[in-house]
Specification:
Length: about 100
């Protein structure tokens, strides 16, 4: 099992309920990849480095998980189609 970190930026234009539901969908996708979530760090609403889809702010989350080598590909494939996800990045952490 490898350790990964998923950096996730969600839209600031949606309600709290929709944002929470989107985060739950992301967490479910991580667990369906055969991974286990070890930590979720919620940074809250922050200014974006540049404008994305007419937005200057987004909600930042950092999800740490352990999973197999093919887990990032499986997760990324599904995150690309989620409407409220502005940006994401999965990085393998050093042992």
């Amino acid at each position: 099992m490898n350790k990964y970190e998923l950096a996730l930026v969600l839209s600031s234009k949606v309600d709290d309920d929709i944002r929470t539901a989107t985060l739950e969908r992301v967490k479910n996708r991580v667990t369906k990849s055969g991974s286990t979530i070890t930590d979720i760090d919620e940074k809250g609403k922050q200014r974006l480095a540049y404008e994305i889809q007419d937005m200057f702010e987004g909600y930042y989350y950092f999800i740490h998980f352990e999973g197999p080598e093919d887990a990032p590909h499986f997760i990324e494939r599904h995150l690309r189609i989620y409407d409220n996800v502005l940006r994401f990045l999965i990085v393998k952490q050093d042992a």
